[in-house]
Design goal:
150 residues, Nuclear Transport Factor 2, Chain: A, six-stranded mixed sheet, 41% strand, globular
Length: 150
């Protein structure tokens, strides 16, 4: 009887570990998708406004560190900037691309470290904060970055 209970316990632990691993993989894929469509294709490459609005939480802020000072740029201002770029036809033919360095997930919170490239040149390292909302899934809620010196 003890041996059977032990085997059932091991089986339960093993199945929950597999389920957790599959959920984490699914969450990582969803996070990568949000970052690619809303941030890289949307913001960086002046893509679809709807994709940006879907992937960013309305309370998002970009924190800008410059000269020992900090400022913030809310998502609605960033979206307006993208709309202006699109209206003026200022889309750079050379697209920004993204390399996912790390995605760290704890429950409904996540942090993604990515590298942005233009023309094969590393231009930024970004740290994106995300929350998983029960109705809408993963949303980008904050960003800090480091601009790679030229």
């Amino acid at each position: 009887m003890m041996k059977k209970s032990f085997i059932l316990l091991i089986a339960a632990v093993f199945s929950s570990t597999i389920a957790f691993s599959q959920n984490k993989k699914t969450d990582e894929e969803a996070i990568k998708h949000v970052i690619q469509t809303a941030y890289v294709d949307g913001i960086q490459n002046a893509g679809e406004i709807e994709a940006i609005e879907k992937g960013f939480h309305p309370g998002f802020n970009l924190l800008i560190y410059k000269g020992n000072m900090m400022d913030k740029l809310p998502i609605y201002n960033w979206i307006e900037y993208v709309k202006i770029r699109k209206a003026k036809g200022e889309n750079d033919p050379e697209k920004t691309t993204c390399e996912f360095v790390d995605i760290d997930i704890t429950g409904t919170a996540a942090m993604a470290k990515i590298k942005l490239f233009k023309g094969g040149k590393h231009i930024f390292t970004d740290y994106l904060s995300l929350y998983k909302f029960s109705d809408d899934g993963w949303k980008i809620v904050g960003k800090i970055y480091y601009r790679i010196p030229e």
